[in-house]
Design goal:
- With 276 residues, this protein is of the alpha/beta class.
- The protein has 2 domains: 229 residues, TIM Barrel (Alpha-Beta Barrel); 35 residues, no CATH class.
- β3, α5 and β4 form a beta-alpha-beta unit.
- The longest helix is centred in the middle third of the chain and has 17 residues.
- The protein is globular, with a radius of gyration of 21 Å.
- It starts with 11 loop residues before the first helix and ends in an 18-residue tail after the last helix.
- The mean pLDDT is 95.
- It binds 3-methyl-2-oxobutanoic acid.
- 3-methyl-2-oxobutanoic acid binds next to β6.
- The site of 3-methyl-2-oxobutanoic acid has 11 residues, from β6.
C-alpha cells in the first residue's frame, strides 16, 4: 500500500457549508499550469466558458464547445490537487432538455474528473438542475447577467435596476436553490439586490460584479493578473500587470537573439570528453 499522503480536495458539501461563514474564494482557470499556481490560494477553481474570449479570442462565449470545456476541465483537474473544480456547461449543451443536459454533464464529469458543473439560468432551468442533482451531478447555478444570453439581454449591462427585473432575478435565485444547486453565481447585478438574495436564499452566493455581502467572490484570473488586455470591467481589481512583464520579457529575448547574446555557452550541449 502506498504511504504517499494524498491531499484531499475541497468537496461540494465543503463549499455549501460556507453559507453565512467565511467567504468562498474562487478564480477561473483554463490550463494545468495556471491551476497549479492558483490551487493553494482558492477554495474553488471555475473552468469558465469565458475561456472562449480570454483564451480563444472569440467575441462572446457562444462559440465555446463541449469538447473545449472537457479538454480545459481535464487540464485544470490534472494541474490542481486541493481546490474544488467546477466546469461550465457551454451554450447549447444543456438548454434543450434535462436529458440532453444529463448526457453532456455526465460526459463533463466522467472525462474531466471535476466535482460539479455550472449552468446559466433561473426558473426555466430549475427542472434541469433538479434532474441532474437527483442523478448524482452537483450543479452550481448562475443568475443575473448571463453571458450566454447576451443577445436576448441586448449586451453586457448590469441587471436588476428595474423592479420587474429585480423580482425576476430574485425568483431565479430562489428557483435555482430550491432545485438543488449547491451554490450559484450572481453576475453583474445591482449591489442591494445581490446582498438581499444572499440574505434570503439558503445556499452560498458567489458574486462577480455583485456585492461584498455575497458568500464568495469569483474573478477571471487573467483579469486580476493583467493578462487580458481587451477591456477591464468595472468590477475587476488588478493585482498584477503580468501582460506588461510578458511583453518586456519577449522584447529582451528578441534583443538578445538579434545581438547573438542568446544562447550563451551555458545553454549549449558540448561534445563528450574525447570529442567526436
Ligand atoms: O465563464 C466564467 O468565467 C464565469 C464566471 C465569470 C462566473 O461564468
Amino acid at each position: 500500500m502506498s504511504t504517499a499522503v494524498q491531499m484531499k480536495r475541497i468537496s461540494v458539501p465543503d463549499i455549501a457549508r460556507h453559507k453565512g461563514g467565511d467567504p468562498v474564494v474562487c478564480l477561473t482557470a483554463y490550463s494545468a499550469p495556471m491551476a497549479g499556481f492558483l490551487d493553494s490560494a482558492v477554495d474553488l477553481l471555475l473552468v469558465g466558458d469565458s475561456l472562449g474570449m480570454v483564451v480563444y479570442g472569440l467575441p462572446s462565449t457562444l462559440g465555446v464547445t463541449l469538447d473545449m470545456m472537457i479538454a480545459h476541465g481535464a487540464a485544470v483537474v490534472r494541474g490542481s490537487s486541493r481546490a474544488c473544480v467546477v466546469v461550465d456547461m457551454p451554450f447549447g449543451s444543456y438548454q434543450e432538455s434535462p436529458q440532453q443536459a444529463y448526457r453532456n454533464a455526465a460526459r463533463v464529469m466522467a472525462e474531466t474528473g471535476c466535482q460539479a458543473v455550472k449552468l446559466e439560468g433561473g426558473t426555466e432551468m430549475a427542472e434541469t438542475i433538479a434532474f441532474l442533482v437527483a442523478r448524482g451531478i452537483p450543479v452550481m447555478g448562475h443568475v443575473g447577467l448571463r453571458p450566454q444570453s447576451v443577445h436576448v439581454a441586448g449586451g453586457f449591462r448590469s441587471h436588476g435596476r428595474s423592479e420587474a427585473e429585480a423580482m425576476a432575478i430574485m425568483a431565479d435565485a430562489r428557483a435555482v436553490a430550491q432545485a438543488g444547486a449547491f451554490s450559484f453565481v450572481i453576475e453583474g447585478t445591482v449591489e442591494p439586490l445581490a446582498a438581499r438574495i444572499t440574505r434570503e436564499v439558503p445556499v452560498p452566493t458567489i458574486g462577480i460584479g455583485a456585492s461584498p455581502q455575497c458568500d464568495g467572490q469569483v474573478l477571471v484570473a487573467e483579469d486580476l493578473l493583467g493578462l487580458f488586455a481587451d477591456f477591464t470591467p468595472k468590477f475587476v481589481r488588478r493585482y498584477a500587470e503580468l501582460g506588461e512583464q510578458v511583453s518586456a520579457a519577449a522584447a529582451a529575448y528578441a534583443d538578445d537573439v538579434r545581438a547573438r547574446r542568446f544562447p550563451g555557452p551555458e545553454h549549449c550541449f558540448g561534445l563528450p570528453k574525447g570529442g567526436a
